[in-house]
Amino acid sequence: MYFLHREVKIMPWMIPTVLKNLFSGPATVKYPFEKKDPVPEMRGKLTWDMTNCDLCHDCERLCPVGAIVVDEEQKKITYDPFLCIYCRKCAENCFHKCIVVSVEYHEPNVKKGTLVFEKEEVPAEIT
What is the DSSP string of 17-41? Predict the structure, then answer.
């Protein structure tokens, strides 16, 4: 009997909170139907601008987990987004600023895979 009497005493204090929650909007975003704007400081997707890249291996050396492999002979960069911890050390220390960090993120995927960025040869002009 004592507990019932105590709960009745507490109940009037809860009424404003209950009414506020009943008439306010949802606290979360309905994700699949409404997409939230990304936070500006979010660590997003990494891409390479291969027109500026000179394959100097700086990004490969600075990557703490080895998610970046530079192959100078085949002129390509292999990047593993599943291994990457998105610390941005590669992008911050790239001398030519060819690593672009966007606010978008990689979509969920069932299979693990790597991204390959290849440097295209520009033919020399014949004069």
Answer: HHHHHHHS--SS--TTTSPPPPPTT
